[in-house]
Amino acid sequence: MDDLRDLYQEVILDHGKNPRNFRHPDDCNRQAEGDNPLCGDQLIVYLKLDADGTVADVAFEGRGCAISMASASMMTEMVQGHSEADARSLFDKFHKLVTGHEDDIDGDVDDLDKLIALSGVREFPMRVKCATLAWHTMTAAMDGEQSVTTE
Ligand code: ZN
Questions:
Q1: Distance from the CA of 91 to the center of ligand 1, in angstroms?
Q2: What is the pTM of this model?
Q3: DSSP-assigned letters across all residues of 23-90
């Protein structure tokens, strides 16, 4: 179990230090700002949604703690190329995972893949907001909202 924990730690550190898709795409057609005042995490999620609802591109910019940056980085990797519906369903599973409701997850938990690395935040309610900020911001952008806050 300790080895597993170390491995998880590595994934989070890696994504936190070298966030993937940390950029502002020229051709995005949706964007929203996410704010987690309790921790000071602030980010903008950019989406390019195709007419058929595919996430053709997703990226983010911002600053915050390692958990918020790592989670945003993993989010971009995991929803890229998937449908909007799949992205929302993945957030639903991820939300259940980090709030300790993994028994309620519909379908395959393996879909969460590297996101399982963030499951440790369930023991720290304040950290749950860090881990879910990018996801709330992504769905806000899909819904056409300008901004979202964890407060
Ligand atoms: Zn944070």
A1: 18
A2: 0.94
A3: S--TT--EEEEEEETTTTEEEEEEEEE-TTSBEEEEEEEEE--HHHHHHHHHHHHHHTTSBHHHHHHH
